């Protein structure tokens, strides 16, 4: 009897009584999530100490100090490390929700709960026709690969808002716009999600984003001084040691470059001859990336349900890779967007997503494990940065190529009149 039941299940028959359909596919990622997140908590609580700098200092010292200032009703305008939009104050103040815990412990618990919400959203969205659980595994694995840094920054909270915005876009465009605006006021980059909105939903999504952004920003501007200081906060940033441009100086050190690494605007940056030029080049690359994305948007004709996620993934990859700063937590943004992309069986972003996961695995090695080697430009440190940033460059190029090929019809396609599928309004129809 047992053998017969097992054979029937394996060949597509009825699942054993008491086990709902898909339960096994749900249990596996949930179990993996529980195990990996328990390890992350042990690391940030310093039960297990990860080699290298203490990644929890940002929470236990910097965030805690900001908390003290923000609690008075003002932004820490005199602190050059505060470079964030006003809604970031909500993330820093969030441990108030758990007053019975020390600040840092409360923050880690809230990040854990946010992580669980993202998992639940992905599990729910990954069910049904045309959907896949691959995205769930990307999230489970990607956050774990980044190590304790994933829980010691507020970026996971921002990523959760971005995931919710993309998933809401499948049926509630105004909610998508509101969430995108709120995410952008947490850490700017979710604004890039607007680039991939399907043509028929642009007015509703962009309109809701504009209204929400104006209301929230206005409320902060009225209630708290210096709410708009973030607009110029990063104007004088240099080239951070983990960025793509920093590779120039890592290598130049071996040829007598007379510069130094110093804590500057909250991160370790290269300072010295040529840094201003490399920083300007990085900004120009970001401008070119924006130009390409606008050109893509003007040419794109084929929008599927997964196109908004694919476009957001490609856009954030471009801006992360060309940035003057590529902090480890930035990989969380990419992991979150890759996870949403891979919820759709028709996505072309699987290979770039794998490269992002590989870059995440290298990132935990360059920070915190071997960060001393990165700062001093040892062969190991330079090798790690070449590998991590090379993976990001490759992922960016592959994602952009896939996005273009998927959405921009060639001359032959444009000359072909719509067929019966177009008349039926299938998701992959040019519009």
Helix fraction, binned, reads: 55-70%
Q: Report on the biggest sheet.
A: 3 strands, antiparallel
Give a count of the beta strands, DSSP E runs of length 2 or more.
Answer: 3
Principal-axis shape equals: globular
Strand order across the largest sheet: 1-3-2
List the helices and strands and how they pair.
Elements lengths: L1 H9 L12 H22 L12 H14 L17 H6 L9 H23 L8 H12 L9 H14 L4 H15 L14 H22 L6 H4 L5 E2 L5 H7 L7 E5 L2 E5 L3 H25 L7 H16 L7 H12 L8 H20 L1 H5 L3 H29 L3 H5 L4 H5 L7
Antiparallel strand pairs: 1-3, 2-3
Helix pairs in contact: 2-5, 2-6, 5-6, 5-7, 6-14, 6-15, 7-8, 7-14, 8-9, 12-13, 13-14, 13-17, 14-15, 15-17
Summarize the structure.
By secondary structure, this protein is an all-alpha fold. The protein has 19 helices and 3 strands. Residues 1-23, 411-431 are annotated as: Disordered.
What would you note in describing this structure?
It comes from Streptomyces diastaticus subsp. diastaticus. It is a multi-pass membrane protein. It is found in: Cell membrane. Residues 1-23, 411-431 are annotated as: Disordered. The chain is 61% helix and 3% strand. It is mostly helical and 431 residues long. It has a 3-stranded antiparallel β-sheet. A hairpin with a 2-residue loop joins strand 2 (260-264) and strand 3. Helix 5 (103-125) packs antiparallel against helix 6, helix 7 (155-168) packs antiparallel against helix 8 and helix 13 (307-322) packs antiparallel against helix 14. It is globular, with a radius of gyration of 23 Å. The model is unreliable at 1-19 and 415-431 (pLDDT under 50).
